Amino acid sequence: MENIIFHKVSVIIPCYNQGKYLKETIASVLTQTYTNFEIIIVNDGSTDTKTIEILEDSNWPKTSIINIQNSGVCVARNMAINQAKGEYILPLDGDDLIAPTFLEKAVAILNNSDVALVTCDVKFFGKKKGIYQLSKYSLEALLGQNLMICTSMFRKKDFDETVGYNPNMNEGLEDWDFWLSLLKNGGKVHKIEEVLFYYRIKSVSRTTTVNLEKQSRLRRQVYENHKELYASHFFDPKNSFEYNNLLNSREYRLGKILLNPVRKLMKLLSF
Length: 271
Fold this sequence. Notes:
single chain; alpha/beta; Spore Coat Polysaccharide Biosynthesis Protein SpsA, Chain A; nine-stranded mixed beta sheet; 11 helices
């Protein structure tokens, strides 16, 4: 593929105590076949010595570092994007990786004015391995569940039309909430049918610690942030992976077993 150099890409990397993985993440960006990019790292108040030392001693090319008090991933991303010089934005967490051709292929597609967001398939590594193929995009389906990886490319000018990543989503689902803001007025989503993003699965992370109660609360917050959008569409909640997770959960099955005798008794008493 011909290397496209017309549009600069700003790769945004929030970092909170991820020094163990950060060099590998940066290396995956610096080895891109597409060379017109910058890297903006936001040190979100890291406290571990390894991360602080790595950032203080860093001399990565095309890279700038912003140090802030711990404010959460949403504030960190917003701050970096607001200072970005690139026309295209790619968020990347400080422990994940991208394939060498990610930028080249995503930029080539985003140059199409009808496309607002470029995403791709995912390969898990670390504590869990496997390929995750994203579902087909529609705005109605996006209302029911997140359909894109957080490391998807979009235009900075489109970001400027939104409130950015909403800080009230700092506990999780912030990327899903942002995609709703970005795409609520239209715009195509293009998924590259290829694994170009590598998602690190760790024993403990913000994602793995989302229990059912927290998940429900965060989904409610997504709804509260986009009430008008939800009011203007209808969607089948059974498309939601969280709904399916709940139906298959031990708590749901146990509750159903316990309630069955009660329901039978109520049915008998109604006669």
